[in-house]
Amino acid sequence: MSRAEPQFDELYREVILDHYRRPRNAGTLEAPTHQAEGANPVCGDEIELHLAVEGDVICEMAFRGQGCSISQSSASMMTERVCGGTIDEARRVMRLFEAQLVDAAEPDPALGDLEALQGVAQFPVRVKCALLCWKVLREALNIDETEHARTSQGD
Amino acid sequence: MSIDTARIREDFPILSREVNGRPLVYLDNAATTQKPRAVIDALKHYYETQNANIHRGIHTLAVEATEAYEGVREKAAQHIGAASAEDIVFTRNTTESINLVARAWGDANLREGDEIVLTLMEHHSNIVPWQLVAQRTGAVLRYAGIDADGRLDLDALRSLIGERTKVVSVTHMSNVLGTINPIAEIAGMARKAGALLLVDGAQSAPHLPVDVEALGCDVFAFSAHKMLGPTGVGVLWARPGLLAEMEPFLGGGEMISIVKPEGSTWADGPHKFEAGTPNIADVIAFGSALDYLADLGMTEVREHEKRITAYAIEALEASGGITVHGPHDVEVRGGAVSFEVDGVHPHDISTIVDAYGVAIRAGHHCAQLLMRHLEVPATNRASFYIYNEEREVDALVAALDEAKRVFGRVESRTAV
User: Fold this and answer.
1) What is the pLDDT, as a whole number, of residue A143?
2) pLDDT tens digit string along B360-370?
3) Taking Cα atoms as reference points, which of B225, B181, B177 lies closest to residue B200?
4) Proportion of chain B above pLDDT 90, given as a percent
5) What residues make up the domain containing A37?
6) Could you report the per-residue pLDDT of B55-107, keeping only the tens digit for each?
7) Do the domain assignments include residue A64?
């Protein structure tokens, strides 16, 4: 009887491990206009997020935290992707990212590196790891979760 | 006669299932153990032949169910060397047993400024109930630390216990480090100070011969589901006379003697603390778990676990890039083995080894104070029981090798 060897190179793509080992925008901002922190109490993952917003543009972002490769690489990639764009753009990326993980939707090209986390959708208990930083971003920017959930269902 | 794992495994139906196409390797026994057929059958037998409410019927079924339920009180007492079943209370779990004491004894006896001494290796279930009683009464919590080897700092503990100390509450065996604490020595300290000593036996009662008389504690708490029994059954033992001194925890049926409009009097013995219809079926099935362990002999159980724990610690560390927390000497530790894999977070480890059918625990193990002390967010934990074999340790080590390979891909490149 043959059995397939588990394949983890797809879940843990090199780009994920790279962000995990060398997180981008790691640290804190001296004068954040927005900030929030969050944790997954079950597993102990933690993310603290700082943003500097001018008008409706996210000019600077920094995060620090601890946790698994999925939670930390997701935060690193998130800061790279949404920093420099508008809040509306961040909201749009958030929706695409959640669709990729929760609904296992085909990754949208607009996600950039974040597309690498699509393998997480196959591991339901790990989805919350990838979503933690986004939950913190939502809180920092005061994005209404219920309104957001309605919109994302409409997609 | 030493433990014959091959024969034991035949008694556990779940051990023949596959997980992710592999034979299940169940190494999460500190969380809960698997159940032998005898326990599963006992549940079925009770519901099919004896089901009735206890202590309140004259009919045959009620008498049989009551006898079966009370018989387990006797077995639970024997398991921990208690002289009398009258000092055994059935609860839902260890957590409820500790809450019961914190409420029923703590609220009546603690005053502002009194001290409750705990340790940094306690499970949240032996911290939070005391925090709550401290909030209600103004009592103060003190924590004894642990040394670099993961053993309790007895000098620190001794210096913390003084005339203000009213309660000392410690784990018998750490659910994270495996450390076995010298309870008899701690009992001497508590006795000198006139403090109540509660022992959290959730991890020791399943794995070690326990004798509460020799330990010298006042209260001993443990859970059925961590020792082959069903979930939903906890045990609280209190030294003779202590239950009578305590006020009730929950009010209701079963726990009363006479109820009048203006007030009531309480039932005697353990019944005062067993309000309402208890978990009759699971208590009775727990009796079969206690029989199973008694047949094996707790000394043999302990010897088996010492062997497999020593094998696991050596195999894990020999495989490279792995650090095992806690004492390495199996004479002073049990079979809960926490470890770190260099550069790989425990959640990532757990996901990878699960794909190989290996069930271990990743997380803070309800011991956040200890995680902070160890300066880790979480650990991996493999924990063993009577049915585990060395080949299962080998399966874990092989799965960990795969985790190291996956996470080594980038590291080896960026290391240059």
Assistant:
1) 84
2) 999 888 898 99
3) B181
4) 88
5) 8-141
6) 877 899 999 999 999 999 999 999 999 999 999 999 999 999 999 999 999 99
7) yes
Q: Evaluate whether residue A153 is within a structural domain.
A: no
Question: Which CATH number do you get for residue A45?
Answer: 3.90.1010.10
Residue B369, chain A, CB below 8 Å: the answer is no
A133 assigned to some structural domain? yes
For the entire predicted model, the pTM comes to 0.91
E strands of A19-119, at which residues? 34-40, 45-54, 57-66
Q: Which of A17, A72, A74, A120 to mutate: most B Cβ within 10 Å? A: A17
| Cβ within 8 Å, pair B414-A3 | no
Residue of A nearest to B403 (CA): A8
- Which residue type is seen at B86? E
Which chain B residue's Cα is nearest to A40? Answer: B363
Distances in whole angstroms, Cα of residue B113 to Cα of each of A52, A142, B80, B321, B379? 47, 43, 34, 47, 36
Query: In this predicted complex, what is the ipTM?
Result: 0.83
Fold entry, domain B39-294: Aspartate Aminotransferase; domain 2 (3.40.640)
How far apart are alpha carbons B250 and B273 in whole angstroms? 7
Consecutive H or E run containing B176: none
| Of A48-52, A149-153, B157-161, B182-186, minimum mean pLDDT range | A149-153
Q: Is B217 a known active-site residue? A: no
Query: B5-30+297-414 — its CATH code?
Result: 3.90.1150.10
Select from B346, B371, B410 the Cβ nearest to the Cβ of A21.
B410
- A151 CA to chain B: closest CA distance, Å? 31
Q: In 10 A of CB B29, how many CB atoms?
A: 27
User: Which distant-in-sequence residues (6+ apart) come within 8 Å of B400 by Cβ?
Assistant: B316, B319, B322, B341, B349, B353
- How many Å apart are CA B280 and CA B307, to the nearest integer? 36
State whether B414 and A21 contact (CB < 8 Å).
Answer: yes
The number of beta carbons lying within 10 Å of the beta carbon of residue B10 is 14
> Do the chains contact at B363 and A70, CB–CB below 8 Å?
no
C-alpha to C-alpha distance for B122 and B124, rounded to whole angstroms: 6
> Is A152 within a domain?
no
User: Which of A15, A43, A117 to mutate to probe the B interface, most B CBs <10 Å?
Assistant: A43
Please, are residues A133 and A49 in contact by the beta-carbon 8 Å criterion? yes
Q: Which two tokens stand for residue B106?
A: 């703590």
**Given the residues B68, B120, B313, B366, the one annotated as active site:** B366
For chain A, the domain total comes to 1
Domain ranges of chain B: 5-30+297-414, 39-294
In this complex, the residue of A3, A42, A68 whose CB is nearest that of residue B348 is: A68
Token pair listed for A33: 């206009």
Asked if B349 has any chain A CB less than 8 Å from its own CB, the reply is no
